[in-house]
Design brief:
about 230 residues, alpha+beta, four-stranded antiparallel β-sheet, two-stranded parallel ribbon, about 40% helix, globular
C-alpha cells in the first residue's frame, strides 16, 4: 500500500503550493468519500482543460499552470489524493488522435502521431478501485461543447471527447467509474504505481523536431482553440 501513497519527483506533494492548497481547502478534515469527490471536482473544474509543455512535469507545475490534459490532470489528481492519504495508481494507454480533432486542425493535425499517450487515475476507496478518467474536461468547456453540438446526444468524437453518451457523459464521481475519452482507447499499457514509472517506459511518439514544434507552437494553438470554444456565445 505504501507504493500507492509515496511521493516522487513528479508527485511532489510536499511542494509549498500544494501544501498551501490542502490547508486552504481543508480536504484532510473530510471523510474519505467526500475527500475524493472534492479533490476530483477541483482538478476537473478548477484546473482547466488545456495542453501543458510536457506529460511528465511535476504536480506543482500543473497547479501553477492552472490547466492540464489527461496525463497532467492525472498527475495532479494523484498528488493531491496521496497528500491526503488516499491510495492511487495510474493506468496507461494510447488513444486515437481523432478525438483531438477540432482542438488541433489542419497541417498540425496531419503531423500529429496517430496514437496519443493517455492515462487515467485509479483510486482505492473502501477496498474498491475506481477509474477517474472523467476528470479531464472542465464543466464550462464541456457544457459549451455540448451547446455548440446540441444535435448530438450519443457518440461524439473530437475536441478532447470520445464518448457514446455525449448528452450526459459519466463525469460525476460518487463511488463509480468516470469517463470522457475512453472510447478512443486503442492500446493498454497496464497499471503503474507512479507516473514516473509510466513515463520512464512510455513517451509520446514525437521526434525531437516535432516535440519542439508541439511545445512552442502547436500546444498554444490548441489552447487557443479550446479557449475559443469555452468563451463562445451560442
Amino acid at each position: 500500500m505504501d507504493n500507492y501513497l509515496k511521493e516522487t519527483k513528479i508527485l511532489d506533494y510536499s511542494n509549498v503550493s500544494i501544501q498551501e492548497l490542502l490547508e486552504q481547502r481543508g480536504w484532510k478534515d473530510l471523510d474519505t468519500v467526500s475527500r475524493v469527490k472534492a479533490i476530483y471536482n477541483f482538478v476537473r473544474d478548477e484546473i482547466k482543460f488545456g495542453y501543458n509543455v510536457s506529460d511528465d512535469i511535476p504536480a506543482s507545475e500543473i497547479l501553477k499552470d492552472g490547466y492540464g490534459q489527461c496525463n497532467t490532470k492525472a498527475t495532479l489528481l494523484m498528488a493531491l489524493l496521496r497528500a491526503t492519504g488516499i491510495p492511487n495508481r495510474i493506468h496507461g494507454f494510447t488513444i486515437d488522435k481523432a478525438l483531438q480533432k477540432g482542438a488541433i486542425t489542419g497541417i498540425w493535425y496531419k503531423l500529429s502521431p496517430k496514437n496519443i499517450l493517455h492515462s487515467w487515475v485509479e483510486v482505492l476507496v473502501n477496498e474498491q478501485w475506481y477509474f477517474l478518467e472523467g476528470v479531464i474536461l472542465d464543466k464550462p468547456y464541456l457544457t459549451k461543447l455540448q451547446e455548440q453540438n446540441s444535435d448530438c446526444k450519443t457518440t461524439f468524437c473530437g475536441f478532447g471527447v470520445y464518448t457514446d453518451n455525449f448528452e450526459n457523459p459519466p463525469i460525476e464521481w460518487n463511488l463509480n467509474n468516470t469517463f470522457i475519452q475512453d472510447k478512443g482507447i486503442n492500446r493498454d499499457f497496464g497499471i503503474f504505481d507512479t507516473p514516473d514509472a509510466f513515463y520512464a517506459k512510455h513517451q509520446q511518439e514525437l521526434n525531437a523536431f516535432k516535440k519542439f514544434i508541439f511545445q512552442h507552437i502547436v500546444r498554444h494553438i490548441m489552447n487557443n482553440n479550446v479557449e475559443r470554444i469555452r468563451n463562445k456565445k451560442v
